[in-house]
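Q: Sequence in, structure out?
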Amino acid sequence: MGDTNLYRVTGMSCAHCVAAVEGELEAVAGVESVSADLETKLVTVHGSALDDASLRAAIAEAGYEAE
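A: Exactly. Output:
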């Protein structure tokens, strides 16, 4: 069974924002899938041996802040 991490990324406001966040997160080691919901501002990351700091850094790299 894999891990699931959930982040609130309030800065996302359009489909481009979602694509940027998902793209950066999908490049992180261990990530199997990413789902960002523009309406709720929640980003769900599924994978194995997920590193919270790496995931937060990827969100920051996309230009957003994870809460």
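The mean pLDDT is 96.
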